[in-house]
TrEMBL record:
Subunit comment: Component of the Sec protein translocase complex. Heterotrimer consisting of SecY, SecE and SecG subunits. The heterotrimers can form oligomers, although 1 heterotrimer is thought to be able to translocate proteins. Interacts with the ribosome. Interacts with SecDF, and other proteins may be involved. Interacts with SecA.
Membrane topology: Multi-pass membrane protein
Residue ranges of the TM segments: 21-42, 71-93, 113-132, 144-165, 177-198, 204-225, 259-282, 302-324, 366-384, 390-407
Keyword terms, alphabetized: Cell membrane, Membrane, Protein transport, Translocation, Transmembrane, Transmembrane helix, Transport
PROSITE patterns: SECY_1
Domain of life: Bacteria
Family according to the record: Belongs to the SecY/SEC61-alpha family.
Name of protein: Protein translocase subunit SecY
InterPro entries (UniProt xref): SecY, SecY/SEC61-alpha, SecY_CS, SecY_dom_sf
Stated role: The central subunit of the protein translocation channel SecYEG. Consists of two halves formed by TMs 1-5 and 6-10. These two domains form a lateral gate at the front which open onto the bilayer between TMs 2 and 7, and are clamped together by SecE at the back. The channel is closed by both a pore ring composed of hydrophobic SecY resides and a short helix (helix 2A) on the extracellular side of the membrane which forms a plug. The plug probably moves laterally to allow the channel to open. The ring and the pore may move independently.
Subcellular location: Cell membrane; Membrane
Species this protein is from: Shiella aurantiaca
């Protein structure tokens, strides 16, 4: 405990770090306050306040802003969608690949394209959101004028959230976009925890303690999944430049067990709404279609979870293949005079890295699928629907990843000022740590 208070004192004794933490807290407060500002022309008492399906997932990420018809109802999600599209374009199209290799100027052009695409996506998502989630009885004005004005407001709200995320990245601590999502998820945790306590009552205190212990072990497992890496040793040849000798060191290429992060779960969860949606079209004329619709509308059925897990495994292999390029890694190593001991540079090195990546991706995808279906298992075991969402899935993975990134940022400031790190042994490794680590 003494070490903990010493670390806190050291954190706030560093002026730059203290300023960044205060700025981050201030920006997050602004974001949360905006989540409670209702769109003009809406009577909030007429809203159901209970989003289901994909809307429920978005509402979890946005901390309730989606179901509250807030000016931040779409939040940062259109920007994330635009970023994913641009990221895929940089892999598929040579034009975007060249732009990505142009350095700072190319990065600025890609950011500008992402911002413009964000506005386009926000407009289309805004129309769908206003049509699907806000009933006519909740409107105080004509729907036509309400739709036009609300699309403008929602677009401005998304741009403002995007600006807040960039300010947190520049003036605060950590990745601002990820932190906005995390704070939206965490904001729902106290309410769901209190609701779970009330539902258990005084006689269910022991069960509630067991739920908390199980949640603790799940969080530990997710941290292990996020941190796990397979280190490939790399030896660099000695080079004499002038009177100095460079190289000759053994370093490592850390290949993460879960290199794809939460993207496979997001992709799979988006597709899981298609079976129920398609089945509803023929539900009135077919008992089979009605049965399929009911089955895939319930996230606790075994059919839903088996298909969900298989999609996650497939998308994990797919996303890992498009984000980790063994050929590029092998080429960079060869150019810098590096080689894997016992493996020839060039194509044999690329094949070796690809083989290792394939072997670790399979258990990683299985663990990721297990984490994704844990909320359904918890709900079947008696945990309330809202509280069970914190036992795994996208929410828990995002929270763990962002918290680890933030702790890594804080630890780097402490170590630069020659203070002790956050941990007694070892280093905190965030998701952004993909460089070779010297032994």
């Amino acid at each position: 405990m003494k070490r903990f208070f010493t670390t806190i004192r050291n954190i706030f004794s560093i002026e730059e770090l203290r300023t960044r933490i205060i700025n981050t807290i201030g920006f997050l407060i602004i974001f949360r306050l905006g989540s409670f500002v209702v769109l003009p022309g809406v009577n909030p008492d007429k809203l159901s306040g209970d989003a289901q399906g994909i809307f429920g997932l978005l509402d979890t990420f946005l901390g309730g802003a989606f179901s509250n018809a807030s000016i931040f109802a779409l939040g940062i999600m259109p920007y994330i969608s635009a970023s994913i599209v641009v990221q895929l374009l940089t892999i598929a199209l040579p034009y975007f690949q060249r732009m990505q290799k142009e350095g700072e100027s190319g990065r600025k052009r890609l950011n500008q394209i992402t911002r413009v695409l964000t506005i386009v996506i926000t407009v289309f998502q805004g129309i769908g959101y206003l049509t699907a989630t806000i009933p006519s009885e909740a409107l105080l004005v004509d729907r036509y004028y309400f739709t036009i004005s609300s699309i403008i407001i929602l677009t401005a709200g998304t741009i403002f959230c995007m600006w807040l995320g960039e300010r947190i990245t520049d003036k605060g601590i950590g990745n601002g976009i990820s932190m906005l999502i995390m704070i939206g998820i965490i904001s729902r945790f106290p309410g769901s925890l209190v609701a779970e306590v009330i539902s258990r009552g005084t006689g269910g205190f022991l069960l509630f303690v067991l739920e908390i212990v199980a949640l603790l072990f799940v969080v530990m497992g997710v941290v292990m999944l996020t941190q796990a890496t397979r280190k490939i040793p790399v030896q660099y040849a000695k080079q004499v430049v002038g009177n100095k000798v460079y190289g000759g060191q053994r370093q490592y290429i850390p290949l993460k067990l879960n290199a794809s992060g939460v993207m496979p779960i997001i992709f799979a969860q988006s597709l899981m709404f298609l079976p129920a949606l398609v089945a509803q079209i023929w539900a009135d004329n077919s008992d089979l279609a009605a049965s399929v619709g009911n089955t895939f509308s319930d996230f606790t059925t075994w059919q839903y979870n088996v298909l969900f897990a298989l999609l996650i495994i497939v998308f994990t292999f797919f996303y890992t293949a498009i984000t980790v390029n063994p050929n590029q890694i092998a080429e960079d190593m060869k150019r810098n005079g590096g080689f894997v001991p016992g493996i020839k540079p060039g194509k044999p090195t690329s094949e070796f890295i690809d083989n290792v990546l394939s072997r670790i991706t399979l258990p990683g995808s299985i663990f990721l699928a297990a984490v994704a279906v844990l909320p359904a298992v918890a709900n079947i075991a008696g945990v309330s629907r809202e509280f069970s969402q914190f036992y795994g899935g996208t929410s828990l993975l995002i929270m763990v990843g962002v918290i680890l990134d933030t702790l890594q940022q804080i630890e780097s400031y402490l170590l630069m000022r020659h203070y002790d790190g956050m941990m007694e042994s070892g280093r905190i490794k965030g998701r952004a740590q993909n460089v070779a680590v010297a032994q």
